[in-house]
Amino acid sequence: MKNPAKKSCAATKRDGMGCQAAALPGSQFCFFHDPAKAIARRKAQSAGGRENRMRTLPADAPDVKVQDGADVVRLLSDTINQVRRGEIDPRVANTVGYLSNIVLAATGQHELESRLAELESLLKPRRRSM
To answer: Are residues 49 and 19 in the same domain?
Structure first.
């Protein structure tokens, strides 16, 4: 016994092309174009939006002090655990990791500049005496 070929949706898309999706059983339209499915479609879109919302920490979460490598390690450790528990979105954690790299580079640069300034101040008296 042969299966009848599935018919395509009868709707025309905004670009003027016909919709290529399969029509629903008993309808000439697919789920996205069937006027009888408008309420179900809106509910599905709304539910999808809620499900895909990025999880972040609450607005009243305390600020984190990040001034050196130890602070960065603590922050990354906390962030890893928050991702593992599903408390924050992995995309947020990626941003925290990226910004942590910037903080480490900036603190390293600051440390080098401080050490260089200290060395220069120690060498100044020697240059004067020469």
So the answer is: yes
Over the stretch 34-64, which tens digit does the pLDDT of each residue have? 999 889 888 887 776 666 667 778 888 889 9
- Residues counted in the chain: 130
- Say what the pTM is: 0.51
106 lies in some domain: yes
Distance CA 9, CA 70 (A): 60
Q: Cα separation of 104 and 72, whole Å?
A: 8
Q: Are residues 82 and 109 in the same domain?
A: yes
Strand partners, 8: 22
- Both 37 and 82 in one domain: the answer is no
CB 27 within 8 A of CB 34: yes
Residues 73 and 114 in one domain: yes
Instruction: Find residue 12's DSSP bridge partners.
Output: 18
Tokens 């920490």, located at residue:
57
Nearest to 20, CA basis, from 28, 10, 5: 10
Helix (H, G, I), strand (E, B) or coil at 61: coil
3-state helix, strand, coil in the chain (%, to 5): 55, 5, 40
